[in-house]
Amino acid sequence: MLNPNAKLNTKVFDTDCEVSPIRKGFGEGLLQAGKLNDQVVGLCADLTESTQMHLFANEFKNRFIEVGVAEQNLATVASGMSAMGKIPFISSYAMFSPGRNWEQIRTTIAYNDRKVIIAGSHAGISVGPDGGTHQAIEDIALMRVMPNMCVISPCDAIEAFKATIATLNWPTPVYIRLAREKTPIITTANTPFAIGKAQILWESSTNPSLGSKASKLEACIVVCGALVHRALLAAKELEGKGVGSIVVNLATIKPFDAETIISCAKKTGAVVTVEEHQIAGGMGSAVAECLAQNCPVPIEFIGVQNKFGQSGTMDELIAHYKMDVPDIIEAVQKVISRKG
Amino acid sequence: MSDEIIKKLELQANVIRQSIIEMLVTAGSGHTAGPLGMADIFTYLYFHELKHDPKNPTWPERDRLVLSNGHICPVFYATMAHAGYFDIKELQTLRKFGTRLQGHPHREYLPMVENSSGPLGSGLSQAVGMALADRIDHGQKNDRFIYALMSDGELDEGNSWEGIMLAGKNQLGNLIAVVDRNNIQIDGYTENIMPLEPLGAKWEAFNWHVIEVPGHDFTALHEAVQTAKSIFNKPSVIIAKTIPGRGVPEFERDYLWHGKPPNKEEANMALKELRTLGGKIKSEHQ
């Protein structure tokens, strides 16, 4: 069942569940952040509406800098503004920022300890028709390997809104990963959010008197970003098959909430990670690094398997790259079968 | 600028050059030509022009000096130490384990520097960001200036030109770039590696005010900076024609001295050259 403490959208399993792009939550969050703190500035590299920064740019014209198609400049100029006390938010497609300007982010933002919030929009293969050149599926790896960098991958527009505002009081530079397509709204305004805190969204009931077919919790699904909804659908279906599971939304990949992940791994004895990213170096790798040291359990990884993306619809691509509900269910069954 | 001030600056630059040689020979690695070539400009800025306070390095009203080509940090460190930011003895720790004087500057260890640097082509853009932020806070008052010190070789980097374009677009009169036009980079002479000329015309085409000056002439440097500060609606670039290795004739104009330190013997020779002003006076160390 949905974790009542998470105060999730009660329509999350309904076919008419509301949808909204995750990037829109960032745009609205930035506008709100701008209202809350007059040191907030926005910089964009010719993708102002696409990255939803136009909401801020229209409201705060003198605090918005258009740098043109120049992502290296985007990062370095923001670093300089941070040096003068500003709180710069920079946005582009994740493929270009942090894809193209990685070294500038490393040297002038992370190493330089200048707090800049980097919003990478259109991340994942769910970008769809634009094709492989525009589908950033390496960005989590690029950013989580960088010291002094916080990495957040919100699961819906509401969480993106909260994450964007939460960065105001976070001490280090932050990377926020955003997706293009409309995806289901999972959380509500009342869902707790804190940077660095993973959240249990689903925990199967193991009480038959409550109508559950599952008698025990057999696996934990750790997921982030736009695939959280699919993980919930998989968990619900698994429960119908008598397989109890936990779904953890690991919205903050770094700093890593080891406590929650270790506790869920102990409780279930098996883990499946799910992300719209290369398996190598992504969120699942962070989970594996933690559990290998602290609670070695079988792990299966759902993600892109050492391939580039291609054109197609979001649904077609997620099915093609085996990140869909049936793939998650299969991975859960497999990981349970691997238990000693 | 009076003769007396010029004399004082010349002596100060000479002392800084001696420190550079001493630092490099102790470190056993590092860059020689660039730091010696920029000693006059650093001296001019820190001992005459900059609005700064070594006892209060984070003074908000200070001018900002962004060093882009971090590899010339021996001159940066030596100038800052002689200006009073830290003890001159610390210069001998350059590049040693545990030092605050990293091989390329790092703010974490040396908070009085405005930016960590080393990877080329990123400093000007940071200065552009500072100038933009200053505009947001203070409008066009231009009561503090942002200086970006950069090399000619790093103009090969695309990021440099992205910054140049953005500064031109925003008419940043509070921004002054100083290009160390010494014509060398690691692999050879700039015009052989990647021709930059006509360099002044390029900056001008990007809507900058361009001033070309001899880089070892304090009067000319002073006039150039005063002109740059008076240009209201454009960023200014001072293209300073410097001699790499300046002060030690054996090192001058040779790109092979870009990225290596002197050995003991070469350092002794260089120090003698500097202490005697090329044999013009007797050294007290002789």
List the helices and strands and how they pair.
The complex is a heterodimer of chains A (340) and B (286).
Chain A: E1 19-21, H1 22-36, E2 40-44, H2 54-59, E3 64-66, H3 71-83, E4 87-93, H4 102-111, E5 117-121, H5 139-144, E6 150-152, H6 157-166, E7 174-177, E8 182-184, E9 199-203, E10 217-223, H7 228-240, E11 244-249, E12 252-254, H8 258-268, E13 271-278, H9 283-294, E14 299-304, H10 314-320, H11 325-337
Parallel strand pairs in A: 2-3, 2-4, 4-5, 5-7, 6-7, 10-11, 10-13, 13-14
Antiparallel strand pairs in A: 1-8, 6-12, 9-11
Chain B: H1 3-27, H2 33-49, E1 64-67, H3 73-83, H4 123-138, E2 146-151, H5 158-169, E3 175-181, E4 184-185, E5 188-189, H6 190-193, H7 199-205, E6 209-214, H8 218-230, E7 236-241, H9 264-275
Parallel strand pairs in B: 1-2, 2-3, 3-7, 6-7
Antiparallel strand pairs in B: 4-5
Helix pairs in contact in B: 1-2, 1-3, 1-9, 2-3, 2-8, 4-5
Question: Mind telling me the C-alpha Rg of chain A?
Answer: 19 Å
* Derived structural class of chain A: alpha/beta
Strand content of chain A: 15-25%
Please give the alpha-carbon distance between the first and last residues of chain B.
33 Å
The number of strands of chain A is 14
Task: Determine the N-to-C terminus distance of chain A.
Answer: 27 Å
Keywords (chain A): Thiamine pyrophosphate
Cofactor (chain A): thiamine diphosphate
Domain Transketolase-like pyrimidine-binding (chain A): 20-185
Family (chain A): Belongs to the transketolase family.
